[in-house]
Amino acid sequence: MEQLGYRVGVEDIAERIARHGPDREIFVAENDRGVVGWAAVCIEEGFVEGRLAWIEGFVVDERARSSGVGSLLLDAVEEWARVHRCGAMRVQSNVIRERAHAFYERHGYAKLKAQFAFRKTL
C-alpha cells in the first residue's frame, strides 16, 4: 500500500480484516515471492444507485504489474459481486493514476465524472 502512498499500520489492517462481514471480501494474489497484490470489495446499497459492489482498495506490487495479476484479481472481485447479486461495480481512482485508468477501461469500466472528495476527521 505504501507504493501508492497509503500509510496504514499492520495492526489497523489486521483489525479491519477481523471485523469484515459477509458484505465485504478481500482477495490476495501470491507468487513465489509472496503477496503481490490484493483487492478489497464491499457491497453498498445506496439510495440512488441501488445494490452495487465497490472496490475499496486495489493494489498490485509494482514489480508484478503487467503480469496479469491485476486482471486475475479484478475477475475474482467481479465474480464475487455477481454471486452477491450486485448489478454494477464501482471503483474510484486518483486522477494522477493514468495507468490504473487505462487498466479499468481495458476491462470495460467507463469514467463517469470528475469530482472532489471531502473528508472531515471526527
Written overview of the protein:
By secondary structure, this protein is an alpha+beta fold. The chain has one domain (2-106): Aminopeptidase (3-Layer(aba) Sandwich). 28% of the residues lie in helices and 29% in strands. It contains three helices and four strands, in the order αβββαβα. It has a four-stranded mixed beta sheet with strand order 1-2-3-4, with helices on one face. A hairpin with a 2-residue loop joins strand 1 (24-31) and strand 2. The longest helix is centred in the middle third of the chain and has 15 residues, at 69-83. The two termini are 24 Å apart.
What tags apply to this protein structure?
single chain, four-stranded mixed beta sheet, 4 strands, 28% helix
